[in-house]
């Protein structure tokens, strides 16, 4: 049973990790806590189906074969994020972090209500790759193929990002901008390009979470992505603001903690699982307020 | 003399045209997520109102409808209720859900006016939670759970049950309460395990692991949940290879969610009437066709039916009382015992303005297709303290 | 220095003192206008707006002075609403709906005024205990900790069914909140907020908001002042929550979660987080805008034609409007300035010129 638990924990943690990465990317370059990220996820899910208020959904992009579908949804997520940056966040670039936060909150509400008007409030069934749900025997555990794919995807994405950030020029520029934005601009880094790139990546990651969610649950609902986004924020901060690896590690840890609590709490306490989880978060913050893997520039030097 | 007779005759002729309409107010959600549930039930209510008006009206007067949007917001519900009072409503129909209907119902209660919940299935949507003039026309959640328990035991030899409760809303807890009251009483039956999840959980892998770690697969899994969590849970349960019979409450009625688990089988739920065209009662299919004529599509779920039933019952009570005045009509409603309606008999009493037992149609989904296969009425009414959740 | 000359400092102090008076006058004018010209629905809108003033001004006491965005104040409103319900509901109703209440609360049947005071005190007590831990953190860590706190309170409240009713609404709260009751509490909150802002603690807190390092070099104990502001702020949010509950008559944990948090934050930021006047103006602006849009959704008749917005557009337009306000005035409508009488009026004849 314990190997099964490991896989359960890893797959839930993987989803949170990908979401946390999306949040941390934008926070790194713009000091913005993007409260619209949950709606980026929801919009990417709804991009699979045609807009209508009917009870049954008809597949739009969702009818494409798998490689095209993935590419299309990733492009949609990236495009949505870049558009949001250009229209909402770029004019606010020099505003206070609070104003940015509220603007992203407002953007989230805007997107959610647009979805409500376009698709109606009733959740819709969307069956995407149902064969991925069937279990695969791995040693003593029976693991749904999707879980294995999620774990594999997290590893791939992390490796790819790490490579890009260390080796590619655009990754270098992003790291420089995250560390000291003004200095980077003076050295010739194009601010708009870096920020748009970060948003595009973040949007694509939101689309990945969307695909995982819809394959896992089989439904499209306007309120999707909200709960994951909240956990992703907490993971970003607990991992250490500005540290991408920290965000991923914290996302994995939170997912693991949630799965472990669900498995080991007595049945009367299980509905309070989230209260225990958030209590743990507060404890971690009390002992390491700068986060578990804070980057060098995190603490202000006097 | 002649002119006076002419005037009197004119007055007599014009009197019926001057008689006031009876005004029914609808405090429902026309925007926000609750709209998907309120609109079908309200449409059904209006179908019955049209039928009554076409047959000559109520107490010789036409029924007029006024509406106000609650916007799926509690404060909005209270405002909608007040708005309807200003428009002269004499009976208040409120939202399908206790939380969103109660603020408007309380406004009506304060004016000694009857309030009717469109399809609330919580016992508090009545005397216990609003006041002595409040009613609901749907079937209580614990009754749905108890019906599943007794039916599965009698017809499918269910002896070992696993309860999986979605902690999202009160309705879900009500279904499980009813199941957990009825099932252990039945011969040879026992609940072998329990677990909970939240409707918006990204994955219920841990809960599924727990089910699989039982020695034998349970005969039935009582899933107490609503959309979208219910569809997600079913998909994950079947994907994990668990083939137990899955039971749920009426909230998952409809085929709109079945794409989430293609080829779903062994899933059973109770409904007040079948939307699939196979209900043995002709009036049900007649209603389905009338609904299609009015809106262009058949009802998407059984939650349209309580709207029709409520107008039916209220109108009968008004006819018997001879007035629309709240207390008098309430007294007539409370006398109803197994009053026949198109969707089964309905009863009210001075302690309970809900159904604590009901004739339910049993719908089973086989290979992704729902069909009505049976009907069941529980052998004993659910006691009040179980309904109150003790 | 002759006795008739007033220093610039004294002038500014007098100007600052006029702020709560002017804001209170503004609110009184608002209520009088609504009562004279509005209908029952407008009166309810006025009550709701004044309750929001209480909530947002209370929120400002902490967030505006310390610069720390707290996401947890909706939890104080939740506690306040439920404490007020526990102490004012009929014992018979509590016996059926909330069987887990301790005997002292289950039998209590108080008048609404002491109930709302106790509601505020309970929220303040919770703030004192949790703030003692959370407020040692700085910057974004503190904000996220308050967020975790909000989620904890919400989870506990939604599942502790015997005591709170869980996800089921608690009904039967006495609906005593008229626009005048709302006005009374709003003015009290404004007075308290101004007094705190003008006090030494408020000043110290604002100093630490502006420059953390310089303030601590000047000997300011940021933690102590933050805790004081947090506790006072929680008191008024608790009262605001009690008022909310008694306004609608029905309470449920999810009415005190993310939607309320966003609304409070948005109103504060739209008006300008730096000043109390900004908080009040933000509440009034957003509430009036929402009301106008809701009426337009219901339908407005011009001449013989009825023109109505499609349902669901009100939320979209408000969100878009908020984004636009922030784009064009990122510091808020009042950009951190307070509404005061001009200096000339405060000094009497002639301007101060030392």
* Helix fraction of chain A by DSSP (H/I, runs of at least 4): 55-70%
Mean pLDDT score of chain A: 85
Strand percent estimate of chain C: under 5%
Strand content of chain A: under 5%
The rough form of chain C would be described as globular
Distance between the terminal alpha carbons of chain C, to the nearest Å? 10 Å
Biggest β-sheet description of chain A: 2 strands, antiparallel
Low-pLDDT segments, ≥5 res of chain C: 350-354
Q: Structural class per helix/strand content of chain C?
A: mainly alpha
Number of strands of chain C: 4
**What is the number of beta strands of chain A?**
4
Q: Would you write up a description of this structure?
A:
The complex is a heterotrimer of chains A (302), B (390) and C (354). Chain A has 302 residues and is mainly α. Chain A has one domain (2-224). Helix content of chain A is 67%, strand content 4%. In chain A, a hairpin with a 2-residue loop joins strand 2 and strand 3 (141-144). The radius of gyration of chain A is 19 Å and the shape is globular. The relative contact order of chain A is 0.19. Helices cover 39% and strands 18% of the residues of chain B. Chain B contains twelve helices and twelve strands. In chain B, the strands form two sheets. Chain B has a seven-stranded mixed sheet with strand order 7-6-8-9-10-11-12, sandwiched between helices. In chain B, strand 1 (22-28), helix 2 (35-54) and strand 2 (63-69) form a beta-alpha-beta unit. The longest helix of chain B is centred in the N-terminal third of the chain and has 20 residues, at 35-54. In chain C, the strands form two sheets. In chain C, strands 1-2 form a two-stranded antiparallel sheet. In chain C, a hairpin with a 2-residue loop joins strand 3 and strand 4. In chain C, helix 2 runs antiparallel to helix 14, helix 13 packs across helix 14 and helix 14 packs antiparallel against helix 15. Chain C has one domain (8-256). With 354 residues, chain C is mostly helical. Chain C is globular, with a radius of gyration of 22 Å. Classes of the chains: A mainly alpha (302), B alpha/beta (390), C mainly alpha (354). Chains in contact: A-B, A-C, B-C. The interface between A and B is large, with 46 and 44 residues.
């Amino acid at each position: 049973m314990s190997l099964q638990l490991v896989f359960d924990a890893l797959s839930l943690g993987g989803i949170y990790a990908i979401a946390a990465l999306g949040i941390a990317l934008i926070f790194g370059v713009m000091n913005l806590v993007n409260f619209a990220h949950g709606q980026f996820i929801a919009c990417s899910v709804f991009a699979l189906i045609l807009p209508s208020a009917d009870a049954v959904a008809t597949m739009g992009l969702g009818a494409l074969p798998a490689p095209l579908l993935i590419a299309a949804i990733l492009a949609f997520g990236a495009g949505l994020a870049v558009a949001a940056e250009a229209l909402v966040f770029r004019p606010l670039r020099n505003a206070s972090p609070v104003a940015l936060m509220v603007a992203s909150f407002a953007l989230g509400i805007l997107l959610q209500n647009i979805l409500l008007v376009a698709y109606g409030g009733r959740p819709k069934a969307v069956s995407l790759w149902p064969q991925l749900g069937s279990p695969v025997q791995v040693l003593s555990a029976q693991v749904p193929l999707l879980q294995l794919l999620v774990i594999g995807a997290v590893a791939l994405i992390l490796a790819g990002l790490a490579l890009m950030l260390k080796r590619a020029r655009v990754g270098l520029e992003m790291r420089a901008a995250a560390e000291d934005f003004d200095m980077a601009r003076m050295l010739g880094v194009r601010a708009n390009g870096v920020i748009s790139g970060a948003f595009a990546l973040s949007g694509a990651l939101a689309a990945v979470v969307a695909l995982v969610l819809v394959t896992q649950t089989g439904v499209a609902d306007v309120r999707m992505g909200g709960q994951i986004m909240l956990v992703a924020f907490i993971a970003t901060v607990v991992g250490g603001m500005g540290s991408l690896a920290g965000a991923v590690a914290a996302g994995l840890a939170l997912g693991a903690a949630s799965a472990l609590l669900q498995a080991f709490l007595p049945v009367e306490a299980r509905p309070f699982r989230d209260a225990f989880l958030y209590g743990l978060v507060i404890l971690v913050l009390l002992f390491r307020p700068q986060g578990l893997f804070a980057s060098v520039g995190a603490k202000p030097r006097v | 003399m002649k002119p006076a007779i002419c005037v009197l005759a004119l007055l007599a002729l014009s009197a019926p045209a001057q008689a006031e309409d009876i005004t029914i107010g609808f405090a429902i959600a026309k925007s926000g997520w609750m709209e998907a549930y309120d609109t079908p039930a309200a449409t059904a209510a209006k179908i019955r109102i049209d039928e009554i008006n076409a047959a000559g009206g109520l107490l010789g007067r036409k029924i007029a409808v006024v509406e106000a949007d609650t916007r799926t917001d509690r404060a909005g519900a209270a405002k909608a209720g007040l708005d309807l009072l200003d428009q002269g409503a004499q009976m208040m129909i409120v939202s399908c859900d206790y939380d969103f209907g109660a603020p408007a119902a309380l406004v009506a209660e304060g004016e000694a006016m009857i309030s009717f919940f469109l399809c609330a299935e919580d016992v508090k949507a009545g005397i216990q939670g609003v006041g002595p003039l409040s009613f609901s026309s749907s079937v209580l959640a614990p009754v749905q759970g108890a019906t599943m328990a007794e039916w599965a035991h009698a017809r499918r030899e269910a002896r070992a049950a696993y309860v999986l409760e979605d902690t999202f809303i009160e309705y879900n807890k009500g279904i499980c309460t009813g199941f957990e009251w009825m099932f252990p009483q039945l011969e040879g039956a026992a609940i072998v395990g329990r677990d909970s999840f939240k409707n918006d959980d990204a994955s219920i892998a841990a809960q599924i692991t727990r089910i699989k770690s039982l020695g034998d697969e349970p005969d039935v899994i009582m899933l107490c949940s609503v959309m979208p969590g219910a569809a997600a849970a079913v998909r994950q349960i079947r994907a994990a290879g668990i083939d137990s019979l899955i039971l749920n409450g009426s909230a998952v009625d409809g085929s709109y969610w079945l794409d989430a688990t293609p080829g779903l089988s062994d899933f059973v739920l109770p409904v007040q009437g079948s939307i699939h065209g196979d209900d043995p009662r002709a009036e049900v299919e007649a209603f389905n066709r009338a609904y299609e004529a009015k809106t262009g599509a058949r009802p998407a779920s059984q939650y349209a039916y309580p709207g029709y039933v409520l107008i039916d019952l209220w109108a009968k009570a008004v006819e018997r009382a001879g007035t629309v005045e709240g207390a008098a009509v309430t007294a007539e409603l409370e006398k109803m015992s197994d009053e026949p309606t198109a969707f089964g008999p309905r009863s009210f009493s001075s302690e309970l303005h809900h159904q604590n037992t009901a004739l339910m149609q049993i719908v089973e989904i086989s290979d992704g297709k729902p069909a009505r296969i049976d009907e069941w009425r529980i052998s004993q009414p659910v006691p009040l303290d179980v309904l109150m959740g003790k | 220095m002759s006795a008739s000359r007033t220093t610039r400092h004294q002038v500014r102090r007098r100007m600052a003192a006029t702020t709560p008076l002017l804001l209170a006058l503004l609110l009184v004018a608002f209520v009088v206008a609504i009562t004279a010209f509005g209908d029952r629905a407008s009166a309810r809108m006025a009550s709701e707006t004044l309750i929001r003033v209480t909530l947002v001004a209370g929120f400002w006491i902490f967030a505006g002075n310390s610069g720390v965005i707290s996401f947890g104040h909706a939890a104080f409103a939740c506690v306040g609403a439920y404490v007020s319900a526990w102490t004012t509901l009929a014992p018979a109703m509590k016996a059926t709906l909330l069987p887990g209440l301790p005997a002292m609360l289950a039998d209590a049947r108080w008048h609404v005024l002491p109930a709302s005071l106790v509601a505020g005190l309970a929220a303040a007590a919770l703030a004192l205990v949790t703030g003692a831990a959370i407020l040692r953190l700085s910057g974004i860590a503190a904000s996220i900790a308050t967020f975790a706190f909000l989620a904890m309170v919400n989870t506990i409240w939604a599942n502790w069914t015997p005591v709170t009713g869980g996800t089921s609404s608690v009904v039967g709260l006495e609906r005593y909140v008229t626009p005048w009751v709302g006005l009374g509490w709003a003015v009290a909150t404004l007075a308290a907020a101004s007094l705190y802002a003008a006090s030494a603690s408020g000043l110290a807190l604002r100093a630490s908001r502006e420059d953390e390092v310089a303030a601590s070099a000047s000997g300011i104990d940021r933690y102590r002042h933050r805790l004081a502001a947090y506790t006072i702020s929680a008191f008024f949010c608790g009262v605001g929550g009690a008022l909310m509950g008694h306004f609608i008559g029905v309470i449920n944990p999810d009415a005190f979660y993310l939607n309320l948090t966003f609304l409070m934050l948005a109103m504060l930021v739209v008006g300008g987080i730096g000043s109390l006047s900004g908080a009040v103006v933000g509440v009034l602006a957003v509430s009036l805008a929402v009301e106008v849009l809701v009426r337009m959704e219901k339908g407005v008749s011009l001449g013989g034609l009825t023109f109505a917005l499609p349902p669901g557009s009100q939320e979209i337009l408000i969100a878009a409007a908020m984004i636009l306000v922030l784009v064009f005035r990122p510091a808020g409508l009042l950009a951190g300035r307070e509404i005061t009488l001009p200096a000339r009026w405060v000094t009497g004849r002639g301007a101060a010129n030392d």
